[in-house]
Amino acid sequence: MQFKPKTQEEIDADGLIAKGDYPATILLCEEQTSRAEQAKAQSEGREPESNMFKVKVGVYATAGDRQEWITDYIMSDSGKLKQFAEACGLGDSYQKGTLEAEQFDGRDLIVKVGIEKPKPKDKADPDGEKWPAKNRIDAYVSKDAKPADDKKAKDEDDDIPWG
Fold first, then answer.
1. What is the average pLDDT across 137-158?
2. What is the residue-wise DSSP string for 27-82?
3. How far apart are CA 158 and CA 163, in angstroms?
4. How confident is the model at residue 110 (pLDDT cuts 50, 70, 90)?
5. Is the dihedral of CA 147, 20, 112, 54 positive or negative?
6. Cα–Cα distance between 78 and 44 in angstroms, integer?
7. pTM listed for this prediction
8. What are the backbone angles phi and psi of residue 39, rounded to the nearest 5°?
9. Which of 58, 56, 57, 53 is CA-nearest to residue 30?
10. Number of separate helices (H) and strands (E) present in the chain
């Protein structure tokens, strides 16, 4: 059998969407409590509060012929929440300080997809076994924005090969 050998980076990158802007749909949005909030609430003797959204995003790569699911966690105190709300047409609700997870379900928008490099499974052993590279949502953009034309182009800053 003849084949082209692949580096571990090439193997890790198989199945990932190239960096770029893509149309997407919010498949599910849930309110959750971070581990940090749980610990803080426990130390203060109170019930923890929901302080983030767990968002399942369906990203339509390569002209909509494939949908990739990406999970994102959006903290209530991050600038990404404002960006997310505005991109989903909920900027007024954001300004009022009240957002419900269900308001986001089924919303269409544009997302800026990035690639998270492989990370060590054990932080104490950075050269040990690693979690593979994966796609991530870098930004939420208004649904009126147009996705980038060349989604397959290799970004100059991207060190994961696409060939």
1. 61
2. EEEEEE--HHHHHHHHHHTS-----EEEEEEEEEETTTTEEEEEEEEEETTSHHHH
3. 13
4. very high
5. positive
6. 23
7. 0.77
8. -65, -45
9. 53
10. 4, 7
Query: Residue 105 corresponds to which tokens in the numbers above?
Result: 């379900």
Distance CA 72, CA 81 (A): 11
Which residues sit opposite 58 in a β-bridge? 25, 69
Residue 125 in tokens: 């052993």
**pLDDT band of 65, cuts 50, 70, 90:** low
3-state secondary structure of 25: strand
The amino acid that residue 60 corresponds to is: Y
**How sure is the predictor about 152, in pLDDT bands with cuts at 50, 70 and 90?**
very low
pLDDT higher than threshold 60 for residue 35: yes
Tell me: pLDDT of 149 over 70. no
Give φ, ψ of 161 to 5 degrees: -75, 145
CA 113/CA 146 separation, integer angstroms: 14
